[in-house]
Amino acid sequence: xxxxxxxxxxxxxxxxxxxxxxxxxxxxxxxxxxxxxxxxxxxxxxxxxxxxxxxxxxxxxxxxxxxxxxxxxxxxxxxxxxxxxxxxxxxxxxxxxxxxxxxxxxxxxxxxxxxxxxxxxxxxxxxxxxxxxxxxxxxxxxxxxxxxxxxxxxxxxxx
Length: 159
Prior knowledge:
Elements: H1 2-28, E1 35-38, E2 42-49, H2 62-86, H3 92-115, E3 118-126, E4 129-130, H4 136-154
Antiparallel strand pairs: 1-2, 2-3, 3-4
Helix pairs in contact: 1-3, 2-3, 3-4
């Protein structure tokens, strides 16, 4: 029971942080703004991404977008949630990582469902390294995926 509560709380926390930050950005930041937070290394902006990561799939037909950006990801996240809640041999770190992936994924699906696009607003640049524009849901998914990758490389526990 404690494990299920942890999973639900982590998923809801990730969704909440993502949706609250996007709501603030939608209200406070003009589209394509360039607000330097930490010199030119950390920039706040706002774009509406009608595709997936880095705009992938933004040129798909509306029906294809529904299938590949809403329905299919929602089914995968439902299955993943079911597995995390019911599979007994998943270690705690994997549970946390998968909960981050699920919460972040749901956060972006909520945007696509409500607004037809995902609000992205963070951009990092360090020397020649720079990111695309992203949001907190993307951070959740990325941290979860990196953790799963790291755990799978360690091969100490079942993922």
